[in-house]
Amino acid sequence: MGAVWNVVKRVQSNVSLQGRCDADVAIVGGGITGTTLALLLAQAGQRVALLEAERIGCGATGHSTGNLYATVSLKLGTIRRKWGDEVTREVANARRTAVDFVQQTVDRFAIDCQLQRCPVHFALTGSDTALEQSLDYELETSRLAGLDAAKVDAIPGLSGLRRALRIEQQAQFNPLAFTLGVAQAAQQAGAQLFENSPVRDIDAGRGVLVTDGGEVHAGQIVHATHTPKGINLLQTAMEPYLEYGVAAVAAPGMLGPGIHWLLDASCSLRTYEASGQHWIVAVGGKHKTGEAPANGQTHQRLRELLTRHFNVSDFPYAWSAQQFHPADELPYIGGAGHANVYVATGFAADGLTWGPLAANIIADQLQGVASDWAERFAARRFTPAKSAGNWMKENIAVARHMVGDRLGIEKVATLEQVPAGAGRIVEYQGENVAVYNGAAGIQAVSPVCPHLKCLVQWNAADTTWDCPCHGSRFRPDGSVIEGPALLPLAPFGPS
Ligand code: FES
Question: Residue 289 C-alpha to ligand 1 middle, in angstroms?
């Protein structure tokens, strides 16, 4: 079904990489970060080659919420508690600058992505005292960070509201339409964009990136892939999560404009309008990657929530997106690992704003220009006091999956014992096999993630194999959807 953002028509198709391409900068990933960086560098006269594994904007960007804001989804108070007042102000300033940059880009290139300014609401419907206190703290923190924030007790169209925090002058758009527009502008500025070109190997020392059809030779390499491809130490400092979205056909004005986070229900609501059609969008159901509910009802829960609040019944869109939560709550942007390698990762659920900011920071760094924000978000920063708690939690979880997921695997005599419609890891003829019994029949692959050998887990809502360790995700045939894995799950059976 995909995300509602796919209502936009792709007018442009890019070739896959064939043969050798030489560039100053190779960018891996064609989402909002990669395309924005390609545009900035091409405008500055750099030779840019961008490699997208599938289609431009079809990854995390095209599965996002379409919301842009100077605050953060986990609330600025989370950052203030960990980093203090000054850094909180810096974060809000940096993110406000990024939202303004998106607006300027839309205006400059006349990108039709339905960008509009709107408020953000953090809303409470219940009487949870802890949530009420956190809302008070968030109001104080938002004002301290220079945001135009106030308490309100009504959101047009939303019943049952007790109280909410409202922050003015944030924004919404169609993230896919924006990214396609930026990609087109980048190409017109001279960037080379390659689609359907997954990177299979990266030799940072030689500056070579290998795809199925060719090679890019570049002086600098940027991972704009949500989490770096291949092995990178930062992967041990981030927790991968999945969140789900649905969109229902709606009547105009059913819900007031803006981004509405319902804190009690841990989900967000917004509306979207394009070409005279209206939808209402709910995003939520978050869980650690690789720990999806067995019943696969995650999208259904969101549909039920929308049905409870609004007179809707037609749900033409459903999707999911992965997030990578950084151990110290700030994203990792800039040089990491090898001297010519740059990353933009750890965006949590806020990547549509962090992405353009990261593109600006890295574009400055690659041109030797001082950046206001580079040091604050430096990927090489060392923050043990602020990272230790989440780092320990994540790496204990990884160790638990490494060992625990290999225990208690059911033995089967035939792969057909996996029920129709189900995905299971089973032991068959002495080997562990990831089996999906779908409409196309049995699909059997190795359950061992090619990244660092954890066992993948079945996600019934998305019909995917998801790795709980660092967020690689695979289709039932083993092909890579996203994450650090460069290679697919190995096929099972006679070769
Ligand atoms: Fe690292 Fe699977 S993503 S082991």
Answer: 11
Ligand 1 center–CA 475 separation, angstroms: 15
DSSP 8-state code for residue 74 = T
Do 291 and 354 sit in the same domain of this protein? Answer: no
Q: Which residues contact 486 (CB under 8 A, 6 or more apart)?
A: 198, 199, 200, 201, 202, 229, 230, 450, 451, 480
Nearest atom, ligand 1, residue 235 CA: 1
Q: How many separate domains does the chain show?
A: 3
Domain holding 39, by residue range, is 8-63+176-236+328-383
Let me know if residue 107 belongs to a domain.
no
Structural domain includes residue 490: no
CATH of the domain at 252: 3.30.9.10
Atom of ligand 1 nearest to the CA of 470: 3
pTM over 0.90: yes
Q: Are residues 234 and 245 in contact, defined by beta-carbon separation less than 8 angstroms?
A: no
Mutate to test the pocket of ligand 1, among 454, 474, 480, 481 (most ligand atoms within 8 A of CB): 454
| CATH code of 476's domain | 2.102.10.10
pLDDT of the chain, 495 residues: tens digit per residue = 799 999 998 887 889 999 999 999 999 999 999 999 999 999 999 999 999 999 999 999 999 999 999 999 999 999 999 999 999 999 999 999 999 999 999 999 999 999 999 999 999 988 889 999 999 999 999 999 999 999 999 999 998 899 999 999 999 999 999 999 999 999 999 999 999 999 999 999 999 999 999 999 999 999 999 999 999 889 988 999 999 999 999 999 999 999 999 999 999 999 999 989 999 999 999 999 999 999 999 999 999 999 999 999 999 999 999 999 999 999 999 999 899 999 999 999 999 999 999 999 999 999 999 988 999 999 998 777 777 777 677 666 666 666 666 667 999 999 999 999 999 999 999 999 999 999 999 999 999 999 999 999 999 999 999 999 999 999 999 999 999 999 999 999 765
Residue nearest to atom 4 of ligand 1 (CA): 452
- Same domain as 258, residue 290: yes
